[in-house]
Amino acid sequence: MKVEVRIKRYDPERDQKPYWSTFEVDVEPIDRLLDTLNKIKWTMDGTLTYRRSCAHGICGSDAMRINGRNRLACKVLMRDVGSRVTVEPMLGYPVIKDLVVDMDQFFEKYKSVKPYLITYDTEPGTERLQSPEERERFDEGTKCILCGACTGSCPSIWGNPDWVGPASIVNAHRFIFDSRDQGAAERLSILGRKDGVWRCRTIFNCTDACPRGIPVTDLIEQVKRAIVFNDTKNA
């Protein structure tokens, strides 16, 4: 099948403003968009710039805006995008070049919520055990691959770049509700600030954008309730 691929291009060191490049590409219906981008770069325009790594939906490096929705290029089949596909960098991030965005602030926000196990008691000398039910309580958040698709789809981020963003809250949730963790109060204090969890407007763009099927908006609401009721293990 033949498809028209429109790609938003921009090199801040050379271009005054973004522009569009259009490519006519012969593809197979079960080719992935990443395959198509590779074909363009390798045979048509070697200057095209984008991130890629595992190509199996695990690393999250090839998140981009595909036909107006944040997706992983390695998980989108050409038969599902039609004969014309528009590819852009994710919104809400500074563009480094073409489809590559600057994720530095994203990871700084991620680190700000202390996304690691915190304990204050004496080391037990054995594993810190928990029941299957206790594990299930926070399991959804462990699926996050930090691709940034949820954060880049959020209008609250577009309007306020200082907001901590949905990905950070999801990763805070993962430890707030972990029965082994003792740092929930610290994280809830961080997320209770003006640029914390309350900036979420429950628009659900983040849930739609997540390539791992995480119910992002629901996890954010759970954190809100934990702050209100101060019940980090049973909220």
Automatic annotation (TrEMBL):
Its cofactor is [2Fe-2S] cluster; [3Fe-4S] cluster; [4Fe-4S] cluster. It comes from Thermosporothrix hazakensis. GO terms for molecular function: 2 iron, 2 sulfur cluster binding; 3 iron, 4 sulfur cluster binding; 4 iron, 4 sulfur cluster binding; electron transfer activity; metal ion binding; succinate dehydrogenase (quinone) activity. The keyword Iron-sulfur applies. GO terms for biological process: respiratory electron transport chain; tricarboxylic acid cycle. Residues 134-166 form the 4Fe-4S ferredoxin-type domain. Belongs to the succinate dehydrogenase/fumarate reductase iron-sulfur protein family. It catalyses: a quinone + succinate = fumarate + a quinol. Gene3D superfamilies: 3.10.20.30, Alpha-helical ferredoxin. Its EC number is 1.3.5.1. Binds 1 [2Fe-2S] cluster. Binds 1 [3Fe-4S] cluster. Keywords: 2Fe-2S, 3Fe-4S, 4Fe-4S, Iron, Iron-sulfur, Metal-binding, Oxidoreductase, Tricarboxylic acid cycle. Residues 1-91 form the 2Fe-2S ferredoxin-type domain. This is Succinate dehydrogenase iron-sulfur subunit. InterPro entries: 2Fe-2S_ferredoxin-like_sf (IPR036010), 2Fe-2S_ferredoxin-type (IPR001041), 4Fe4S_Fe-S-bd (IPR017896), 4Fe4S_Fe_S_CS (IPR017900), Beta-grasp_dom_sf (IPR012675), Helical_ferredxn (IPR009051), SDH/FRD_Iron-Sulfur (IPR050573), Succ_DH/fum_Rdtase_Fe-S (IPR004489). It comes from the Bacteria. The keyword Ribosomal protein does not apply.
